[in-house]
Structures are given as structure tokens and as C-alpha cells.
Automatic annotation (TrEMBL), chain B:
InterPro entries: DNA/RNA_pol_sf, DUF6504, Rev_trsase/Diguanyl_cyclase, SulA_CellDiv_inhibitor, UmuC. Keywords: DNA damage. This is Protein ImuB. Coiled coil: none annotated. Residues 46-58 have a biased composition (Pro residues). Belongs to the DNA polymerase type-Y family. Pfam families: DUF6504, IMS. Gene3D superfamilies: 3.30.70.270, 3.40.1170.60. Residues 133-256 form the UmuC domain. Residues 20-99 are annotated as: Disordered. Residues 527-601 form the DUF6504 domain.
Length: 226, 605
């Protein structure tokens, strides 16, 4: 599913007089969030999840099923900015859920990130509800990255649809890609209004910033509020 | 292998010897064991050497042994004084760590191969009747050779080692099958493990016998005689004939098991073994023949010969050809410990069940609690656990679990076996369950936090244990930095059970994900040294909108093959904003192969 390039124009030419970069809207408490990357193979979704955990307090338990590891590669710690990592590779989606549940019961972890490839029957409303409640009970943020899967019924407190955008220009090299930008659509949420932003690291502070919300189409707004 | 190590682990030991002790054989302690044996057997009373500091003093005259056996005699300075005063106390373990008179059980299974074959044939319902002669044969140099026979065939005079055609001439109705020595060996291995139900220290002895160190274990079975009865009954239940003997030394036990089964106390060792033939000394046939020709047909006769003469006559290197060495081993003058394949665990708990059960789970919590109490009493924590389930039909089912830091929390240890016992085959049921801490480490008591908050490091260690136990230790990994600049060699993924976390220095322009192995792409470029203009990856055509690079990473000449080509890495962004890490392997015309190939190695955020 490719993003339609017409709906967005490069940030350099975008008139944004009053949209100073805002801080990332924080969740009220750590909970379960889901990310549906629009393009499966790139690393936007793990980067977006990691960007939320910038104040990483403990090791991150990273769980991949077999197909996710094969199709999108393994995490590469030199590119991850010094966060401590525990990597678990399992074969089935249900094992991902089991391991996430175990990890969420351990407050020593900074976060639990799970990756499931494809639409797995095991990842249903009950399973995600269990994860969300457990994450909230122990205060461990959980991220479920679901590639090549339609957004089915789920109890995740926030559900994002994510795709890459052309990066900010590099100041020294006009031909090179700079810091990354993503188009992040919060299409289902419990604590705040859904919306659509250009997300990226603030070049000055390095924090995650959400620039100028992109106007949602009427159909999307109806779907988000349904 | 200290003397204390071989004690049965079922009894908890006195706390003041709970020190970390070396596991390797210590010559000093072996010597102590020998000393104890010598005192126990009452043979060779030696004058105690006078205390003299310095190196090992010259041995007394009567212990001179020119055969080349290393004498393990401690110098007076080497032996701790408390060992000296301790004497053998009637064959029981003394609690103060003093010397112990060993009790060795030799279990001879004279018809193991035939009986095992018959048992398997019985399962297929084609076992021969007991009263018909039956033999197992092996392929020999000149045709098949008899390997083992059943009693009916033995009564007809068919003996192992004879050629099959000759035996067919004696007994035309002889039924023959081919033997399986390797299978017999494996079965004996399993039986050896199963025999740990009686004592913790068992080993295989030859092709048809087991040897066990039952020192201190017999009281669990109501004495040695009752223990022998129990062993015979159990093995008879498996369809095995056995002959067993318990003696103070391994040599004596071996001899008595084959020639006069039964118990042999330390003081009657000489009286019981003297009438036995010299074949009871574990000698090779040539030496036995030589001794027979010399008129030395019994052990007593051999013992009457002066040691020096024997040593002079049989100065061979191998123990099988050395009657003097065998005689010393029989009498306990030369130590011969039971060489068990693995040390018995120091902490183990057994549950003996009245009836075989198919599901051992209800018994585990009690075992785990008892084990943890034993660990706590000595200030230890378990690092590796083994659950052994002894089946009634002579097999052992095992499951192991490991922990990343020592633990003695019964609930946690029990959870490590969750879901692991479903795959164990219960056969006709388990009647004995052993939970042992194979590896235990010192775990001092610690003050819990006053607010009862759980401690983070403990929580994390438990999580690692559980995930490793469930999915296998290789699946849960931690990255460790490695000294290399090749991207795929920069990270070592090590099992989190054993690895300690070390931080990575973040590098600029490194991808978030790495493809293993790199995926080859078809590339269109303007100039061969430059970046690609377009490439085909996973059947998608990606147009390069922006790029940065190249960053050259040269091969590690000290590790790589000579023809390895360098890599030029490009960070590229395609038309939809996806960012990848591509490299070209080699240069055009670098003399290391044809046209350079392109690979996609990673994905950026």
C-alpha cells in the first residue's frame, strides 16, 4: 500500500507559520499501542516506537516472530542509540503474545516491543486487552508492530498508521537524506482526538515532535470516531 | 572428587563444610581416601611417618612398589590434622568430613544382550521360548561368531566366542539372531542412569556390568541386604538376570559379583576373596594362563607370593596384565574410585512414589520447596536444575532448566518447567522423581527493601529464566559489541542467560535494522563508481531520489579470505521516502572478480 504523494508536500515548501513543533502528545500512562506500517520493509515503525521511549529507563525486550525477522531484518544496536536490548525470536504469533505478556509483568523493563507479521488469528481483541491491562498494571509501555495486517478489532489504546516521508534535507549536502520524517496517523485512540501529523525528531533538541496536523478527510474522520 | 562429594546427596550436610570446593580430583584427597581404605581393610598396617615439613618424604620400605603406580601418599604437612585422627567407623559416613570406608556395589548382568534382545522381541511378539537354544551372533573374521547365549543354549555347551557353524553342528535347532553391541551399549547407558535411583554415583563397568558407590546409601533401603534384594527384584521386573556384590573395594566387588555374589564386610575381605580363581582379578586371558602355568590358581595363592617377585615377573604397562596392581586394587592398597560420568549433584531431592503415576506435576511443588529449603540452609542458589523422572520400565526421562542468577525461590524454579513436561513419555508411569540442582552458586541472604518493592534486577533475571526455559536459551539473546568494523560482525548475539549487558557506542549513519544475509539487488547506475539510479529489490523497482556516500568499508585482511572485496556503502532514499543501506561489493576492474554486485544490507528509520 503506497502512500499517495499528492496529499503531502515537502516540508521545505510547506507554509507553516504558526505550527511550531510540539512535544509528542504523551499517553497518560504506559499502555499498549499498535503500529500498522504502510510499507512493510522499512524501519519507520520500530524507529517511531523507539522515539517514544527516548527516556528509556531499562532494557527493551524486543520480540520478533520468524517472518518479521526474515522480512525486515534484525535490530542493529549500533544504529539504535545506546538503548539496552533483549532480543527474542520465536516462531509463532501466539508465542510473541505469550512473551510480551511475560515481559509486561516485569517492571524492570523499559518497554516491550513485539512484531507480528500478517494477520494472525491469535492477535484478537482478548489478547490485546490482556496486554493492555497488563501494561497499565505494571507501567511498562508495550508496542505491537503489525506488518501486512489489516487493522482488525483490537483493544490497543492507541493505533497508529505509519509511513515514511522524504527526510529533512541535510544542511551540508543537498543530495543526501537528513533526519527522517514520518507520516503518522492516529486513527484510533482512547485518550485524545485522532489526527494525522508529520512526525520526526526535532533537529534542535532531538525529541520526537509532531508537526502540522494534516487535515483528515471526512471519511477518515468518520472512521476514526466510529 | 573429595571423600565428602561422594556422600549421598539426599542427606543434607553439615554447614561447616559448605565451602566452594574444587571438583577436579585432588591427589591429596585421593590419598586420604586411600588411607581410609587402608585403615578400613586392615591390610598393610604402616608406621605413620614422622611429621617432617618439606616435600613428600621417602615412603616406608614395605610400601615400595616398583610397578610404576603413582603413590598417592600425602606428606605429613599436606594432610590436615583432623583427617589423621579420624578412623574408618565401620563403613558409615562420618559427619566431620573424615575418611570413609567405601562400599562398592558391582552389578553383573551376565545375559544382558540376550535378555535385551528377548525383551524387544517380546514386544514384537516373536520371542523364542525359553527352553529352546538361542544365541546372538556377531560377524567375525571367519564367519559369524557366537556373542551371547540363553540358558538353554548354555546347557547344551554353546559358548560365546565359538564359531556359529561349529555350534550349529552341535545343536542343529539353534536359533540365531544378530547382536547389536552399539544398541546394548546405549541400553546399558540408560540403565546406568536409571540405577541412580539407588545411589547417586553409578558408572558402566565393561559391556555387561554396572558399578555403584553405595557408601551411605544403603540405609535408605533398609540395609545392604535389603538393597541387594530390591535391586534384584527391580531388575527381574525388567527381565534382567543380575548378580551383585557389595565389597569395600571395586576389585573385590567385581570378583565377588562374578564368583560369589553377596555382601562382604571389610574385615572378611581377604577370607572371601582368597578362594576365588585368579580370573576374578580382571586380568587378560594370557596373564591368567601364565599364572595357571605357574600354579597360582587362586587369589590366595597369588597373595602368598612375595610382592617383589610378582612385580619383577609381571612388569607390564597395562593394568590387565599386572596381577600385583589388581591384587592391590582388590585389597584396597591402591585406590580405584568409581569414575562416574558426571558428578552427583550436591543438592537433590527424591520423591519415591508408592504407585507409578503418569503425571508428575502434583508432586513437583513439594520437591521444589524441599530443594529450596536445602539450598537456603547452606546459603546456596540453583543455577541449573534437572528433573529426572524414573520410569518403571528402566528408562529415565529428564528435563533441565537454567537460571541467569542463583535462585532459591520454589515458585520461580517450578515455573521454569511449565510446559516442558508434556513431551516426556511416561511409559507405564513414573515411580521415582528426583529434582536436583546440578549447578549451585553461593547466594547469601539479602535484606529485602522495606517497602516490599520487588527488585528490578531480580525481576529481570526471572523474566530471562522463564523466556529461556520456554523458548530455549539460544532464542533470547543480548547484543555484545565485537571488535570489528564489518557491520554484520559488530554485534555478537549471546544467550541472555549467560551474557552480561555491555553498552554500544551509537554510530552515526548506521541503520536500525540489518538484513541477514544481505539481499542482492539488480542495479541501474550512471557511472559504475557512483550511486545507483534505480534498483530492483524483492521484485519492486525503487528509484533513488537522494543518496549519501559512498562510505568505504574495507575487508578485514586478518580474517577474510584473500579474494574478499571491499564494500562501498550508500545511504539512499527512494521516491516514497523509504531509506535503505546499499553497498557495492568491489570495484570495477579491481582484479577480484567480475562486475561488482550490489546488496541491500539495512533499513533506516
Amino acid at each position: 500500500m503506497q502512500r499517495d504523494p499528492v496529499t503531502w508536500s515537502p516540508p521545505a515548501s510547506c507554509p507553516a507559520p504558526d505550527t511550531t513543533p510540539r512535544k509528542a502528545p504523551a499517553l497518560r500512562q504506559p499502555s499498549l499501542s499498535e503500529i500498522f506500517p504502510e510499507t512493510a520493509a522499512d524501519a519507520a515503525a520500530p524507529a517511531f516506537a523507539l522515539a517514544h521511549l527516548s527516556a528509556c529507563s531499562g532494557p527493551v525486550l524486543w520480540i520478533q516472530d520468524r517472518l518479521s525477522a526474515r522480512e525486515t531484518g534484525r535490530p542493529f544496536p549500533p544504529g539504535m542509540g545506546g538503548c539496552e536490548l533483549l532480543h527474542l525470536q520465536v516462531s509463532r504469533a501466539i508465542d510473541v503474545l505469550w512473551a510480551m505478556e511475560q515481559g509486561l509483568g516485569c517492571p524492570a523493563l523499559g518497554a516491550v516491543i513485539g512484531e507480528v507479521w500478517g494477520s494472525a488469528p491469535a492477535v484478537d481483541f482478548t489478547a490485546t486487552k490482556r496486554l493492555a491491562l497488563r501494561a497499565e498494571a505494571h507501567g511498562v509501555p508495550a508496542w505491537l508492530i503489525r506488518r501486512a495486517a489489516p487493522p482488525e478489532l483490537s483493544a490497543a489504546r492507541e493505533r497508529w498508521r505509519l509511513s515514511s516521508l522524504p527526510a529533512r534535507p541535510e544542511p551540508d549536502d543537498a543530495r543526501a537524506p537528513g533526519t527522517p520524517l514520518w507520516s503518522a496517523e492516529l486513527f484510533r485512540t482512547r485518550f485524545r482526538a485522532p489526527g494525522r501529523w508529520v512526525a520526526g525528531h526535532d533537529p534542535a533538541t532531538g525529541d520526537l515532535a509532531f508537526d502540522h496536523a494534516i487535515g483528515m478527510e471526512a471519511a477518515e474522520a468518520a472512521r476514526a470516531t466510529a | 572428587m573429595t571423600g565428602g562429594d561422594k556422600l549421598p546427596v539426599l542427606a543434607f550436610r553439615a554447614p561447616h563444610i559448605a565451602k566452594a570446593r574444587p571438583c577436579a580430583a585432588n591427589p591429596r584427597q585421593l590419598a586420604r581416601a586411600a588411607e581410609a581404605l587402608r585403615q578400613a581393610t586392615g591390610t598393610a598396617p604402616e608406621p605413620r611417618p614422622a611429621p617432617a615439613p618439606g616435600p613428600i618424604p621417602a615412603a616406608p620400605e614395605d610400601s615400595f612398589s616398583p610397578v610404576g603406580i603413582p603413590r598417592r601418599r600425602p606428606g605429613p604437612a599436606a594432610a590436615p590434622p583432623e583427617i589423621r585422627r579420624g578412623g574408618a567407623t565401620g563403613g558409615t559416613a562420618s559427619d566431620d568430613g573424615g575418611p570413609v570406608a567405601r562400599r562398592i556395589l558391582s552389578l553383573h548382568l551376565p545375559r544382558f544382550a540376550v535378555e535385551r534382545w528377548c525383551r524387544e522381541a517380546l514386544r514384537r511378539d516373536e520371542a523364542p521360548p525359553d527352553d529352546l537354544p538361542f544365541a546372538l551372533a556377531l560377524e567375525g573374521a571367519q564367519g559369524p561368531v557366537i556373542h551371547a547365549v540363553n540358558p538353554a543354549a548354555q546347557a547344551l555347551g554353546i559358548a560365546p566366542g565359538a564359531r556359529l557353524v561349529d555350534m550349529r553342528a552341535i545343536c542343529p535347532e539353534l536359533r540365531v539372531a544378530f547382536a547389536d553391541p552399539r544398541g546394548d551399549r546405549a541400553a546399558l547407558d540408560r540403565l546406568m542412569l536409571w540405577a541412580r535411583r539407588w545411589c547417586p554415583w553409578t558408572a558402566i563397568d565393561g559391556t555387561d556390568a554396572l558399578v555403584m558407590d553405595v557408601t551411605g546409601s544403603d540405609h535408605l533401603w533398609g540395609g545392604e541386604a535389603a538393597m541387594l534384594e530390591e535391586i534384584a527384584a527391580r531388575l527381574a521386573g525388567l527381565g534382567l538376570t543380575c548378580r551383585a556384590a557389595i565389597a569395600p573395594t571395586r576389585g573385590a566387588a567385581w570378583a565377588l559379583a562374578r564368583f560369589a555374589p553377596g555382601l562382604c564386610a571389610a574385615e572378611e575381605l581377604a577370607a572371601r576373596t582368597d578362594p576365588l580363581p585368579v580370573a576374578a582379578l580382571r586380568l587378560d586371558p594370557a596373564t591368567i594362563r601364565t599364572l595357571d602355568r605357574l600354579g597360582l590358581s587362586t587369589i590366595g595363592a597369588l597373595r602368598a607370593v612375595p610382592r617383589l617377585s610378582l612385580a619383577r615377573r609381571f612388569r607390564a604397562g597395562l593394568p590387565e596384565a599386572d596381577p600385583l596392581l589388581r591384587l592391590d586394587q582388590l585389597s584396597g592398597r591402591t585406590p580405584e574410585p568409581v569414575d562416574s560420568p558426571d558428578d552427583p549433584p550436591r543438592f537433590a531431592i527424591q520423591a519415591r512414589l508408592a504407585e507409578p503415576v503418569l503425571d508428575p506435576l502434583p508432586h513437583l511443588p513439594e520437591l521444589a520447596r524441599a530443594l529450596c529449603a536445602a539450598l537456603a540452609a547452606e546459603g546456596f542458589g540453583a543455577r541449573r536444575l534437572a528433573l529426572a523422572l524414573y520410569r518403571t520400565d528402566g528408562e529415565v526421562a529428564q528435563a533441565q532448566a537454567a537460571t541467569s542468577r542463583p535462585s532459591r525461590d520454589p515458585d520461580h524454579l517450578l515455573r521454569l518447567f511449565d510446559g516442558r513436561l508434556d513431551r516426556l513419555d511416561p511409559g507405564f508411569g513414573f515411580d521415582l522423581i528426583t529434582l536436583a540442582a546440578l549447578v549451585a552458586e553461593v547466594l547469601p541472604d539479602r535484606q529485602r527493601r522495606l517497602d516490599h518493592a520487588a527488585e528490578d534486577a531480580d525481576d529481570l533475571a526471572r523474566l530471562i529464566d522463564r523466556l529461556s526455559a520456554r523458548f530455549g536459551p539460544q532464542t533470547l539473546t543480548r547484543p555484545l559489541p565485537a571488535p570489528s568494523h564489518i557491520p554484520e560482525r559488530q554485534v555478537l548475539w549471546r544467550p541472555a542467560l549467560h551474557a552480561v549487558c555491555r553498552p554500544f557506542a551509537p554510530r552515526l549513519h548506521r541503520p536500525l535494522r540489518l538484513f541477514e544475509p544481505p539481499e542482492e539487488v539488480q542495479v541501474l547506475y550512471a557511472v559504475p563508481e557512483g550511486p545507483p539510479a534505480q534498483f530492483l529489490w524483492r521484485r519492486q523497482r525503487l528509484r533513488v531520489a537522494r543518496f549519501a556516500g559512498p562510505e568505504r568499508i574495507a575487508p578485514e585482511w586478518w580474517r577474510d579470505r584473500p579474494g574478499t572485496r571491499l564494500r562501498d556503502y550508500f545511504r539512499i532514499e527512494d521516491q516514497t521516502g523509504r531509506r535503505f543501506w546499499l553497498y557495492r561489493e568491489g570495484l570495477l576492474g579491481d582484479g577480484r572478480g567480475a562486475e561488482p554486485r550490489w546488496f541491500l544490507h539495512g533499513a533506516f528509520a
